[in-house]
UniProtKB/TrEMBL annotation:
This is Peptide deformylase. Its EC number is 3.5.1.88. Removes the formyl group from the N-terminal Met of newly synthesized proteins. Requires at least a dipeptide for an efficient rate of reaction. N-terminal L-methionine is a prerequisite for activity but the enzyme has broad specificity at other positions. SUPFAM superfamilies: Peptide deformylase (SSF56420). InterPro entries: Peptide_deformylase, Peptide_deformylase_sf. The active site is at residue 140.
Length: 178
């Protein structure tokens, strides 16, 4: 069972810009493992640290089973990720978000990107990502910058989503209050 709770709209923390991870150590690796557990339990294909209320520049993702349900899990941990380059060619994909449950919309993003990051051992890496992985990484890196996928929608649609989740938050019982 996931130890981390995923925060949802309208939580203001989702708009925070995350701080770089200073040092990759056992605590960071344990946190990454907990993030992966929360992502798989949700279930989702990506999760940024800010989505569990921690403003650190790190994310986890696993798109292996998105295209092939029989595939083995292939988790990735990206610490301090930075998009170095993106294609001029865009692609429209339907996106959802664990922090905006049960809402999906089509978003256009670059079809391929190159990302620099530190892996779970603190080693500098670069990857070329295309397809669903590119979309997932861009979505999660946006979270680290305080941006949500609904920001790509028209103001009218975005405002409707925000109003809906704000209303739901007011109607739901307060949990975690002792």
């Amino acid at each position: 069972m996931a130890k981390l709770d995923i925060i949802t709209l309208p939580d203001r923390k989702l708009r925070l810009v995350s701080e770089p991870v200073e040092r990759v150590d056992d605590d960071v690796r344990k946190f990454a493992d907990d993030m992966l557990d929360a992502m798989y339990a949700a279930p989702g294909i990506g999760l940024a640290a800010i989505q569990v209320g921690v403003p650190r520049r790190m994310l986890v993702c696993d798109v292996a089973q998105r295209e092939d349900e029989e595939a083995d899990r292939d988790p990735m941990v990206l610490i301090n990720p930075q998009i170095l380059a993106s294609s001029d060619e865009g692609v429209v994909r339907e996106e959802g978000c664990l922090s905006i449950p049960d809402y999906f919309a089509e978003v256009e993003r670059p079809d391929s990107i190159r990302v620099a990051f530190l892996d779970r051992d603190g080693k500098a890496q670069e990857i070329e990502a295309t397809g669903v992985l590119a979309t997932c990484l861009q979505h999660e890196i946006d979270h680290l910058n305080g941006k949500l996928f609904i920001d790509y929608l028209s103001k009218l649609k975005r405002d409707m989503v925000i109003r809906r989740f704000t209303k739901q938050a007011k109607l739901s019982p307060k949990s975690g209050i002792l």
